[in-house]
């Protein structure tokens, strides 16, 4: 370590360099570190001069790491993650409680997780959950997150992941909406960035006499809530909506489903160590999803959900 101290101008330079390389911008790094942009620029110029190599290329709109910069940034990031994990482990030993951060949609949190919080607390009495909530389209990086839900195409390798189930959509509504026979129009409750080609995905809608009226929200949790309140028919993502299907609050509006081709995965950042308690929570979520799917498949065998999600069958 004495040798390392001679190779860098200061330990603080490592924090500044890591933030700048991750943000790709001196101004953003300065805001994160609560210092001025000139201070960041001076520190990194001093670091480059001290090491005798160029670490950044100045490009329009920000900066890019050079090859030497990438090598150093990867090693520093790995080191910081290891230190952070060690501190978390020490804190856990002191408090007896582990914190798990989830990157999930507001809809998953509201309509899948909240109805079974008592069950989760009983299964994991020693964890505190924190949330990185996504109100719109599910995606984004997994910075400082233990576990996330993402929809993945094919063999994407950005994450280490475990398959939950294929992405399956069922048109859902309240029982009262389904049974009301005198409607002159069908209301489709959809996401602002959602797929609206309902007649193509669900041919039964082409045969209905009612025209379709769209009610659009930017948050899927509101879409589901509006359907439960009898306001129309919503696209029901099966990995989220099975609790309400199981207890009868939502029912299939038609006997058709749409399999998108994407796969729902539980993911964590590639190359990072997954703590045992996080793996246990991941497996618990999958088992709860399987239990719900079996129950819903028994209620609505015409949907053939278990046939569409063969990985959910008991092994």
Automatic annotation (TrEMBL):
Highest taxon above the source species: Bacteria
Pfam families linked: HTH_1 (PF00126), LysR_substrate (PF03466)
Keywords: DNA-binding, Transcription, Transcription regulation
Domain HTH lysR-type stretches: 9-66
Keyword Transcription: yes
Record InterPro entries: LysR-type_TF_proteobact-type, LysR_HTH_N, LysR_subst-bd, WH-like_DNA-bd_sf, WH_DNA-bd_sf
Sequence similarity: Belongs to the LysR transcriptional regulatory family.
The protein's name: LysR family transcriptional regulator
């Amino acid at each position: 370590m004495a040798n390392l101290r001679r190779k860098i101008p200061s330990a603080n330079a490592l924090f500044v360099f890591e933030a700048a390389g991750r943000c790709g911008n001196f101004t953003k790094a300065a805001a994160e570190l609560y210092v001025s942009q000139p201070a960041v620029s001076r520190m990194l110029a001093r670091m480059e001069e001290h090491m005798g190599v160029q670490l950044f290329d100045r490009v329009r709109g920000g900066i890019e790491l050079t090859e030497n910069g990438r090598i150093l940034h990867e090693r520093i990031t790995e080191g910081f993650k290891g230190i952070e994990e060690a501190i978390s482990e020490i804190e856990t030993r002191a408090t007896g409680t582990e914190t798990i951060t989830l990157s999930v949609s507001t809809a998953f949190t509201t309509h899948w997780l909240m109805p079974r919080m008592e069950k989760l607390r009983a299964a994991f009495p020693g964890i505190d959950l924190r949330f990185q909530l996504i109100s719109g389209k599910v995606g984004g990086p997994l910075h400082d997150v233990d576990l996330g839900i993402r929809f993945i195409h094919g063999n994407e390798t950005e994450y280490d992941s475990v398959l939950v189930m294929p992405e399956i959509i069922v048109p859902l509504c309240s029982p009262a909406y389904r049974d009301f026979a005198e409607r002159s129009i069908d209301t489709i409750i959809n996401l602002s960035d959602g797929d609206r080609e309902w007649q193509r995905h669900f041919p039964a809608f082409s045969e209905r006499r009612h025209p379709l009226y769209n009610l659009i929200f930017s948050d899927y949790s509101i879409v589901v809530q509006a359907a439960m309140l009898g306001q129309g028919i919503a696209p029901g993502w099966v990995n989220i909506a099975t609790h309400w299907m199981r207890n009868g609050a939502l029912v299939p509006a038609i006997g058709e489903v749409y399999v998108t081709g994407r796969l729902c995965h539980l993911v964590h950042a590639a190359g990072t160590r997954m703590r045992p308690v996080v793996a246990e929570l991941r497996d618990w979520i999958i088992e709860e999803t399987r239990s719900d799917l079996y129950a819903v498949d028994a209620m609505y065998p015409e949907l053939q959900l278990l046939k569409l999600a063969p990985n959910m069958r008991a092994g």
